[in-house]
Specification:
The complex is a heterodimer of chains A (273) and B (343). Chain A is mainly α and 273 residues long. Chain A has one domain. In chain A, 77% of the residues lie in helices and 0% in strands. Chain B is built from 13 helices and 14 strands. Classes of the chains: A mainly alpha (273), B alpha/beta (343).
């Protein structure tokens, strides 16, 4: 024991990039494991993140679906599921903002930052854990989709790519959520305002209804916003159809969000007090 | 990079920090010898937490320098983090996880092996009387247990210097005494400790040396005894049940005291430092009060407490919220005001 401590204290001040990177990865994994452990301990978190999309699937499939007409002779559920999956990935990040705000308030982040661990690991571990959480949720919702008649009809490769795209989309929202959570820093406010902007973005998109059914002025917005590009791309990957234009626009938007909100989140974390 | 083992464990020189308009620290100097406990005493907003956050590398100072175990907290932050432990105002533990898990994760983040982390966790749980609760989620712990777990977490890395930021704030009296015992046993083991508190009895009880901070400045320093002697010996204290007679009572005893009497209009408590004149002063006070016909309760002579010290130094009581918000007017003004209130 004392030997191990002595060893640790003997670590030189600047152990070099390789050693530091190695510790950064190990620390990130430790934080990831801790966050996932917390997630499994609170069944409410799991239920909350999974129940909501499942309700959306059932409601739109069986209640609103009958009144929504999509072009071609596809069943509505095939149109719906990529939209729901995109929404699920985006909303799974709700926990990111709340958890960070909570940890900030309680002093957990202070405690971690006063320790000789990699400073990047708190944020990185949060993002990795939340991505894992998102993947589980998305896969469960895919299962529910299959149970109510949805099928990936464009082959396995594109189906996997669709899930990857949903994850990257979710992660981009996760960065925005991390930034807002750290910047607001108050759990209640985060709960109230943290992701409220996500509602109009997802509903005024191609996620649930064909945009052609909206009034003209709304179409102008819905046709040109990132959620629509991403959902259209996911839909094309899942059930086939033209993909090119939407794919590039999605990539451009997602890259833009990463470039802007990545550094913003890191800065908010560094400044957080 | 001085590794001078004879120097102080904590050395702070001319430390300043402002948050916008608010000057949280206005030039603080501290020196804490190895193996001793420094009590940093001050009311809410005095700058205690800001100082701790700078010393624990969480905040950069605007000016001045802070050295912990020979390492500069700004330039050698990573080295400082290996030497310190921090236990903050709130229990920084993950409530959903068990006591053991909380400590093990901290151990892993200190880069102990899985087995070491586990052994250290078990050891600390035993030391802090948490063994029975080791497997329970921390959210089911009592407030005192959560604080103990938090303190245990700050010791995982066997810190040379421990920072305790208001370790008993919000605890019930029994848990508070328990916490005192634990802190005492820790410092008996030789860990240099900086402890902030707004409780005067706490600093008196635990600290070798005390510095009093108010509005970002050190306004007094010394041992508890030295600070108490600053009040000027014994304190004569009594209560005036008829609040309208307080000013008469103050006038009556004004000539007896060494300093100006202080009166609390709400509680009716009047006190005045009487130096070494002890029972003579007592007799004179009885006579003077009797002359003006003021009835009093509990007239007595007592040794000064740190409360009296604080009052004498700042003109407002340490835990007096109203005085605190008015305190921005400056200490001199405030002390004049209290005297005026009384007369």
């Amino acid at each position: 024991m004392t030997a191990a401590i002595a060893l640790r204290n003997a670590t030189p001040d600047d152990p070099g990039l390789v050693v530091r990177s190695r510790w950064a990865i190990i620390d990130t994994l430790t934080i990831t494991r801790r966050n996932l452990l917390v997630w499994t301990r609170v069944p409410a978190y799991l239920v909350f993140t999974v129940i909501q999309p499942v309700m959306f699937v059932l409601m739109f499939r069986y209640v609103f679906g009958g009144a929504i007409h999509v072009s071609g002779n596809r069943p509505y559920v095939d149109f719906l599921m990529p939209g729901i999956l995109g929404q699920t990935a985006a909303f799974a990040t709700f926990g990111t903002a709340i958890a960070l705000a909570q940890e900030l308030k309680k002093g957990v982040i202070d405690r971690l930052r006063s320790m000789p661990m990699a400073r990047s690991a708190v944020l990185a571990g949060r993002l990795v854990a939340d991505t894992g959480r998102m993947l589980v949720t998305v896969l469960i919702v895919v299962g529910v989709g299959y149970a109510v008649g949805f099928r990936f009809s464009n082959g396995a490769g594109p189906a996997v790519l669709m899930i990857v795209l949903a994850m990257v989309f979710g992660l981009s929202i996760c960065l925005i959520a991390a930034f807002t959570g750290l910047a607001i820093g108050d759990e209640e406010s985060v709960q109230a305002f943290g992701l409220i902007w996500l509602f109009p973005l997802t509903f005024l998109s191609s996620a649930f209804v064909p945009i052609s059914s909206m009034p003209g002025w709304l179409q102008a917005f819905a046709n040109n916003q990132p959620v629509t590009y991403v959902i259209n791309t996911m839909r094309a990957l899942a059930i086939g159809g033209p993909i090119e234009a939407n794919l590039w626009k999605s990539i451009a938007w997602l890259a833009g969000i990463f470039i802007v909100f990545g550094p913003l989140a890191v800065r908010a974390y560094k400044r957080a007090s | 990079m001085s590794q001078d083992s004879s120097g102080p464990a904590i050395l702070v020189e001319g430390l300043t920090k402002a948050f916008g308009e608010v000057r949280a620290l206005r030039g603080i100097d501290l020196a804490v010898p190895r193996g001793t406990v420094l009590g940093v005493l001050g009311p809410n907003g005095a700058g205690k937490t800001t100082a701790v956050r700078i010393l624990t590398t969480l905040l950069r100072p605007d000016n001045g320098r802070a050295i912990v175990e020979g390492r500069d907290v700004v330039r050698e932050a990573a080295a400082v983090r290996r030497l310190i432990g921090l236990s903050g105002q709130s229990a920084a533990i993950q409530e959903e996880l068990t006591g053991r898990e909380n400590l093990e994760i901290v151990g892993r983040l200190f880069h102990l092996s899985r087995a070491e982390a586990r052994r250290r966790a078990v050891e600390l749980l035993a030391q802090f009387d948490l063994t029975d609760a080791a497997g329970r989620a921390a959210k089911n712990f009592s407030g005192g247990m959560q604080r103990r777990l938090d303190l245990a977490a700050s010791l995982v890395g066997r810190p040379k210097v421990l920072f305790l930021d208001e370790p008993t704030t919000g605890l019930d009296p029994r848990s508070r005494l328990g916490m005192w015992d634990i802190i005492r046993s820790l410092v008996a083991g030789g860990t240099t400790t900086l402890l902030t508190t707004q409780y005067l009895d706490e600093a008196d009880e635990l600290a070798d040396e005390i510095v009093v901070i108010d509005h970002g400045l050190v306004i007094a320093a010394g041992t508890a005894e030295e600070l108490k002697s600053r009040v000027g010996g014994d304190v004569l204290e009594f209560t005036v049940p008829d609040r309208s007679r307080i000013s008469d009572a103050v006038a009556a005893v004004a000539s007896i005291g060494e300093g100006e009497p202080h009166a609390d209009k709400e509680t009716g408590v009047v006190n005045v430092g009487v130096g070494g004149r002890g029972s003579d002063a007592l007799v004179e006070a009885v006579r003077a009060l009797d002359e003006v016909g003021v009835r009093t309760k509990g007239l007595a002579l007592r040794r000064p407490s740190l409360d009296d010290v604080f009052l004498a130094l700042t003109g407002h009581a340490a835990e007096d919220e109203k005085a605190l918000t008015n305190g921005r007017r400056g200490r001199k003004r405030a002390s004049k005001d209290t005297a005026k209130d009384a007369s």
